[in-house]
Predict the structure of Response regulator transcription factor.
Amino acid sequence: MTTTSPQGRTELLRPDGSPVRVLVVDDEQSITELLSMALRYEGWQIRSAGDGAGAVQTARDFRPDAIVLDMMLPDMDGLSVLGRLRRELQDVPVLFLTAKDAVEDRIAGLTAGGDDYVTKPFSLEEVVARLRGLIRRSGAADRRSESVLVVGDLTLDEDSHEVSRGGDGIHLTATEFELLRFLMRNPRRVLSKAQILDRVWSYDFGGQANVVELYISYLRRKIDAGREPMIHTRRGAGYLIKPAVPAVT
Amino acid sequence: MTTTSPQGRTELLRPDGSPVRVLVVDDEQSITELLSMALRYEGWQIRSAGDGAGAVQTARDFRPDAIVLDMMLPDMDGLSVLGRLRRELQDVPVLFLTAKDAVEDRIAGLTAGGDDYVTKPFSLEEVVARLRGLIRRSGAADRRSESVLVVGDLTLDEDSHEVSRGGDGIHLTATEFELLRFLMRNPRRVLSKAQILDRVWSYDFGGQANVVELYISYLRRKIDAGREPMIHTRRGAGYLIKPAVPAVT
DNA sequence: GAATTCCCTGAGAAAACGCTTAGGGGGTGC
DNA sequence: GCACCCCCTAAGCGTTTTCTCAGGGAATTC
């Protein structure tokens, strides 16, 4: 089931209308805090644990609809945590957090069961998107909930990563895609550069704030080029996307 | 829930009709007083604290709907205060106050959870607007509360920062926008130049008092130009905005 | 009706802000 | 190992915005 808030954001809900529950497991507290904040903002109910034992225990009575699980835990290795969690909650989808250099094939095996993974350092948009996908596919939320964002004649498919405007396919790089997704999930709403940076770039990004300007300009070149613009600058405030108003000629 | 006072101001209220509660945390007393006054004027219930320990303690039994938190506190740093506050009140939205130069350093993630921040020196209108936005989105107030101000045929959208009169879009600069917002939030009420200066300009503005006149004239040019005027001067008292009375011709 | 006070607005300087280009470095695939 | 693509830094440029200053006009007072 989905519902649309007054701001136009679409929320995932369980079939009985109660909020989706997510368990976050990571030993770094800053990570669990960051994730909890972001996921709560999605309207989900969050619990967190700092180690494997805590995770299993919390999972037992919290009965989450999805789990975010760091593969590197102090007390036991991610696999055995996973095993125990699965004993409690058989079908719950898991989003793994792994270091970039983690062994690929091991992860590949894990995600075969419909799970997914994200490498650290991640961006919040990425985690949220992956999680939404997992929950959607697991059937914990209404299956009809869509994975396609539409603003005007602009279309973005979160599953296939396809983007098109007015029927023409548009190729975007990974970062461009995430930026556009964030804009399109908040149409007609001014998003500050800080907000964009916090959601779209990884949490450890320490660079210049003008990357946002740069990527906005890339996006405009691909999306607005030669058409009525959809991406607008609010000087001193931020950017927003909205359906193009046909030129009155 | 929203209600409209006799003066025509729209107030945010909690779903049960009680006033919204806000906790203000800053070590400079002049700031907490300034903010407390301004926020009480919004019809909200305010408590303040001067350090992190006090903030956590006050939050515990005051149970605020939103928190204004200075990042620079004497006893502990803003983030650990945040952590403790969040342990007490999980979903409470936070508006951070930060120094301007601190923004670039290490404030990544502040807006990640739907929170927001304002840099010092700030204007009261900005703080109030941001807080209203946070409270609105957090669901502590009635979700139907709108983000659009309307006076006569003049319309101002706080989310998209769009302004239009009689259907025609009007482009305003950031300062013009804030001034108009302040006027429109107090329709049919005379606002003195001093009041306007205190609310719309940052508290450390040391310039000439006639900026207000200047910006009123800018606004008139954009909003009243060629139409029945909505912005009126009360000589010796101030300015007010009200729906235009159709010209009797 | 003259003086005074208050308000409005034009011009212009300084600063802030956003956009764009060029290029380096890292990673990936062939 | 080479070529390609992607991400980001850095710097320069043009534009927009903000504000000061000053002159003139309008309302008010005496």
About this structure: Residues 148-241 of chain B form a domain with the Arc Repressor Mutant, subunit A fold (CATH 1.10.10.10). Chain B has a mean pLDDT of 90.
